[in-house]
Specification:
Blueprint (H helix, E strand, L loop, with lengths): L2 E2 L2 E3 L2 E3 L6 E5 L6 E6 L3 H20 L2 H17 L1 H12 L3 H21 L6 E4 L5 E9 L2 E5 L7 H12 L3 E5 L5 H14 L6 E3 L4 H10 L5 E5 L2 H14 L2 E5 L4 E5 L5 H13 L9 E7 L3 H14 L18 H16 L3 E4 L18 E4 L6 H4 L6 E7 L2 H9 L3 E2 L1 E5 L3 H10 L4 E4 L15 E2 L17 E9 L13
Parallel strand pairs: 1-5, 8-9, 8-11, 9-10, 11-12, 13-14, 13-19, 14-17, 16-17, 19-20
Antiparallel strand pairs: 2-3, 4-5, 6-7, 7-22, 15-16, 18-21
Amino acid sequence: MSQTFQNYIGGKWVPARSGKTFENLNPATGDKLGTFPESGADDLDDAVKAARGAMRMWQLTPAPKRGEMLYKLGQLIAEKKEMLAQAATREMGKILIETRGDVQEGVDMAYLAAGEGRRMYGVTTPSEMPNKWAMSVRVPIGVVGVITAWNFPFAVPTWKIFPALLAGNTVVFKPSEETPEMGYHLAKLFEEVGLPAGVFNVVHGNGKNVGWPMVQHPGVDVVSFTGSNAIGAQIATEGARLGKRVSLEMGGKNGVIVMDDADVSLAANAVAWGAFGTTGQRCTATSRVIVHERVHDELVKLVVQRAQALKLGDGLKDGVEMGPLVNDKQMQRVSGYMKVAAEEGVTIATGGARATGAGLDNGHFFQPTVLTGVQAKMRVAQEEIFGPVVGFVKVKSLEEAIAVNNETPFGLSSSIFTSNVNAAFTAMRDLTTGIVYVNHGTTGAETHLPFGGTRGTGNGHREAGHTMLDAFTEWKSLYVDFSGKVQRAQIDNN
């Protein structure tokens, strides 16, 4: 039964001021899941005012106490994991074992951030002068605006929100309009653990009416964004104009290198999972296979077999291995790249079209697709498709493979399959991506390591891991002089 949802502002559940709403639909079935507020700049302004009003109180709450609240939140998420996973599958489409993992990342991030509450590592260092103490500490920046994509509707928000809150910031969150229910559930969880009113706020709506006003709002000090490169570039430009902190996590065109000494069956399994898991709708999805010519045909054959054997359907049903694309817009995007592939002379070894049949006709299902004959500079090898499509690029050497991998506008994740330790270490050194795997696919990042990429994938920040607080804190240097006299720094006292 469809439910009516509201914004969460200042600890209260409220509709959009305009009274406008939008519908949330199941991408596998087309069923209506709920009605959400179609908010605007005035609703965003209410949320920012609430966040600023709660800021001082939250900053003065000791960091270990903030951490304890996040720890309780992690326990609560773990208790409700199955309910949350099913809700995520209904609105995003990926299969249940994947949304369980999505939710588990939220648990992991809660615990990781909670532990940071008893560290918040600063730096102490000797002063150059006698009887003087010197140290530096992290301090919160203020109000953090969070804008996230729909493909990981629970995990990705937690990568941003939990560290921001732990550091002492308050948060205004705009979930993707494609997956708004997970934003609602996160607010309910915070409400249940007793987070003070105004510390965390949720405003539903689209990018034009909520996201862009958030970027421009003078009361928002930091913008943390996950989404497309085109929108990220606009946010970066506007953030620079306004002089505010911006953290971006954007696209990927991730490559798996398979050398002629690799375990080809293992590589095929990893490629299939990386390319078709989450229906290819991951920033870390495997988009390219850069394969040595001596094992090319064998690897293509195995990946095609795995693609053709996948069972498509509603992610809540047993046995389903791949769900739908998130909406019709994505269907048109992925289908459009099949036309591009044909124009570029690429061979579609399997797939390449909308999937139809029993249980599929009401959803946005696309066939797992393998492209061969791809050249490194083709659009299908350079542009992010964000669907269950993987292209094979044939190479003659490790050096050529590394060069092909690095020559894209993106730099998130890469991988090499080899049994040669020298080749593995060469790849680890020379692959210019933020994440590198050896004998593993391009997906599977762990929360306690930094996540992010180079080039067009981001703007230098990293999420999670020991870097989680960097985007959400300033450094303050402190000096205590107990000499009883004026000591002149930066002056030659010799």
